[in-house]
Amino acid sequence: MTARPQLPLPILLFSCLLAALLSPKPSRAQMSLERSETQELLAKRDSLEREIRKKILTDGDKKQLTECHRAKRTHLEAKRKENPEVAQVDSALREAKLHGMLPDHAEAEKLMERKYSLEKGFEDGWQATATGKRCEEVDNRIRHKGDAALAADPEFGRIQTQIKSLGLL
Fold it and tell me: How far apart are CA 119 and CA 81, in angstroms?
């Protein structure tokens, strides 16, 4: 067995660079066309999904969803008013924004995390109530009904297959 001669590093780097420069690349027009076709396909899928999910809702479903959203909004508003820390965090965030603090600043991130944890606590409290549990059951029932309708729709299935073939799902 004979040893292969090794190329010096500068020649190896030059040859790699040359190969990269000479390899065929899609033009900007091709890339933007592919991107716009992809975006169009995703938009079509999202639009069709909204249409199908809206179509399957009965008047009773719509009424239950409206009642649940109203009850949840009322619950969350009451919890925000009860807790003085919410107003303090909101005020601190408003002041920071007025003074030009960017959202990625450590202090602003800390305030946003605190606000998120407060809101998450209120959400968890809502879901622990009897009304919250009933509304979650309504949401799940409607979601499963919508998923079944999407799976049965041939146009939606065709679009999903195209999206998967592009590696977007």
Answer: 12
* pTM greater than 0.85: no
**Dihedral through CA 154, CA 155, CA 157, CA 160, nearest 10?**
180
Q: Which residues of 8-28 are buried (b: 16+ CB within 10 A; e: fewer)?
A: eeeeeeeeeeeeeeeeeeeee
pLDDT tens digits along 95-147: 998 989 888 889 999 999 999 999 999 999 999 999 999 999 999 999 999 99
What type of residue is 1?
M
Distance CA 167, CA 169 (A): 6
Angle at Cα 137 formed by Cα 133 and Cα 139, nearest 5°?
A: 115
> ∠ at Cα 98 (96, 101), nearest 5°?
45
Q: Is 101 helix (H, G, I), strand (E, B) or coil?
A: coil
Q: 7: which 2 tokens? A: 């190329």
The residues, ordered by sequence, that sit 6+ positions from 38 with a Cβ below 8 Å of its Cβ are 166, 168
